[in-house]
Design a protein that fits this description.
CATH class: Mainly Alpha
Radius of gyration: 18 Å
Number of domains: 1
Number of helices: 8
Strand content: under 5%
Helix content: over 70%
CATH architecture: Up-down Bundle
Largest sheet: none
Order of helices and strands: HHHHHHHH
Distance between the termini: 33 Å
Length: 193
């Protein structure tokens, strides 16, 4: 296993630590969880950068990165839903994101049986970035309200949270759109079944 893949896989144990910190009642646990989330999001860029720099890119590495991203983000979304960081109606958005990820993973699996490699597209990478940015905004709001109550004006915090929710809605739209683009581009894989 190379360094890029090891960094990629580190996001899975980090997810469990982040979730534990966000649920914890200990002082500043929300802020520590937020900082760890930002670090984990940074590793998503770092692993690809190192793989390209040291010419250690591979199909396995691309698969591990895409799968880890899905686990990390869906785990984060479910945690935010259960902690009321996002409202209950976002369950439908989370289900839509989950559905897209399952469909594209299945498409990649079918394509692999036909010796077709479905590489990550720019739209897929962009939706992951927006998902992470929306989560950063929402987790920052949560850590401020949890760890530093009364420090900031409540009206400003509400606007900040709404901004995060708008980004989350945009991320969901981008997720669905990129899924449709994959299905259209690789429809020949499905026709070949």
């Amino acid at each position: 296993m190379n360094i890029a893949n090891a960094i990629t896989l580190s996001r899975i144990p980090l997810l469990f630590i982040i979730v534990g910190l966000l649920y914890s009642e200990k002082k500043y646990s929300g802020s520590i969880g937020f900082c760890l989330f930002v670090f984990a999001a940074y590793t998503d860029w770092l692993d690809g950068h190192l793989a390209r720099k040291y010419k250690i890119t591979s199909s396995l590495g691309a698969f591990i990165d895409a799968t880890t991203d899905k686990i990390f983000m869906i785990g984060t979304f479910i945690t935010m839903l259960l902690l009321n960081i996002v409202p209950h109606w976002t369950l439908f958005l989370i289900i839509l994101i989950l559905l897209r990820e399952f469909i594209i993973t299945a498409l990649r699996a079918v394509a692999a049986t036909q010796k077709v490699v479905i590489a990550a597209e720019a739209a897929g990478k962009a939706k992951t970035v927006i998902q992470m940015v929306s989560s950063i905004v929402l987790l920052l709001w949560y850590s401020i309200t949890k760890d530093y109550p009364g420090l900031f004006n409540e009206d400003y915090l509400k606007v900040f949270r709404y901004f995060g929710l708008v980004l989350f809605i945009v991320a969901t739209g981008m997720t669905a759109s990129s899924g449709i683009q994959y299905l259209i581009k690789y429809r020949s894989v499905l026709v070949g079944l």
